[in-house]
Write a structure and sequence with these properties.
This protein is an alpha/beta fold. It has 2 domains: about 250 residues, 3-Layer(aba) Sandwich (Aminopeptidase); about 110 residues, Alpha-Beta Plaits (2-Layer Sandwich), CATH 3.30.70.360. It has 11 helices and 12 strands. The chain has a 6-stranded mixed β-sheet. The chain has a 4-stranded antiparallel β-sheet with strand order 8-9-7-10, with helices on one face. The protein has a two-stranded parallel ribbon with strand order 6-12. Helix 1 crosses helix 11, helix 2 runs parallel beside helix 3 and helix 8 packs across helix 11. The longest helix is centred in the first third of the chain and has 24 residues. It is elongated, with a radius of gyration of 23 Å.
Length: about 375
């Protein structure tokens, strides 16, 4: 059946490359990916998928199903398609979406023989408010045997781990006053923010190497001669596991409350984006994927990296077996989140790797359906 999948891949290659290139030329930010979602949904519908638009009320999400009508296992391919501000598809999500729909369509052509179901999820806003979080929490992945996607990169690497992450906002409220005439009448919210940064900087000496804490001042006053009554800081706090993250978060909250006490300001803490779980790669599924990648001619794959980034696929991996490997799209080094990376997604080598990625996903999905991968 893999020969049959390979043949289908050749037939749809031009179309999935067109879809990827379309998204490159029409980049849309998270939760604004209307054109991308429509393009992906149209392709799936044209190949017999039943598509539910906007599950959970997420306007640019979708859930497509191809049902064999026979009992069997269920495979999910995950699409991402949000771009970055100003630099477009500098994380290659245009390719991710195209690979996953290509895999779903290819695998659907043999589903009559295997039984089971294929799911293709459109998951917006991975860079900010990842839809996979809500999808995981609300049970959209319940009953599915395995989930997978591939991320373009400068290197071909196995799926590894990603950090758990909390996006915390610290909003301090103070009291305005004339900064020269009567500063004693004011409560400086900006001072509270500065003390928060100082405290977190001191905490860096006493956390494990996997922890990352980085933030910005979103609001810090409007004029130098007015005591600022509003100060807002936004931080990403990351750690290798949810358990470590919880411990670090408690320490950061203590620092934040201390900054309020030191300055007399009041504090409100909130999540300004959704929190991501750490990625737990499924080893048997990854092994099956590696075999299929070699079968398709890529033999230079590297072991997992020790990246400290975060992704909402971590939430999926805490619900069902999941992989998130990387595929090289360039013969020269690339840096993610750059315009050069975005441009690399529409080159001839990227188009070749797009097809290989889609086929590797489809082959691995077939292994799952046939009970050979898990």
């Amino acid at each position: 059946m893999k020969d049959q999948l390979y043949k289908v891949g050749q037939e749809i290659k031009q179309k999935i490359c067109e879809i990827s290139d379309f998204m490159y030329h029409n980049p849309e930010l998270g939760n604004q990916e209307y054109k991308a979602a429509e393009k992906l949904e149209q392709f799936l519908k044209a190949h017999g998928f039943e598509v539910a638009h906007a599950p959970l009320g997420i306007e640019t999400a979708f859930h497509a199903i191809f049902d064999s009508g026979k009992p069997g296992k269920e495979v999910a391919f995950l699409c991402e398609y949000d771009a970055l501000p100003e630099i477009g598809h500098a994380c290659g999500h245009n390719m991710i979406g195209a690979m996953s729909v290509g895999a779903g369509v290819a695998l659907s052509k043999v589903l009559e023989q295997t039984g089971g179901k294929i799911h293709v999820f459109g998951t917006p806003a991975e860079e900010t408010n990842g839809a996979k979080v809500a999808m995981s929490e609300e049970g959209l992945f319940n009953g599915i045997t395995a989930a997978m996607m591939i991320h373009p990169s400068s290197e071909t690497r196995e799926s590894g781990a990603s950090s758990a992450m909390e996006a915390l906002q610290f909003a301090y409220s103070g009291l305005t006053a004339h900064a020269a005439g009567c500063p004693e009448e004011g409560i400086n919210a900006l001072n509270a923010v500065i003390q928060l940064f100082n405290g977190i900087d001191a905490l860096r000496q006493h956390v494990t190497p996997d922890v990352r804490m980085h933030g910005v001042i979103a609001k810090g006053g409007v004029a130098a001669n007015i005591v600022p009554d509003e100060g807002v800081a936004q931080f990403y706090i990351r750690a290798a596991t949810k358990e470590t993250l919880a411990l670090v978060k408690e320490k950061v909250l203590n620092i934040a409350n201390g900054a309020a006490l030191m300055t007399g300001a009041t504090l409100e803490v909130s999540n300004y984006e959704l929190s991501y779980d750490d990625l737990k790669t499924n080893a048997p599924l990854m092994e099956a994927y590696n075999k299929n990648l070699r079968l398709l001619g890529i033999t230079d794959g590297l072991p997992p990296s020790k990246g400290a980034g975060s992704s909402d696929i971590g939430n999926v991996s805490n619900v069902l077996p999941t992989i998130h490997p990387y595929i090289s799209i360039s013969e020269t080094p690339l840096i993610g989140h750059t315009r050069e990376f975005a441009d690399a997604t529409v080159t001839p080598i990227a188009h070749e790797r797009l097809l290989i990625g889609a086929l590797t996903l489809a082959y691995t999905g077939l292994d799952v359906l046939e009970g050979l991968a898990l």
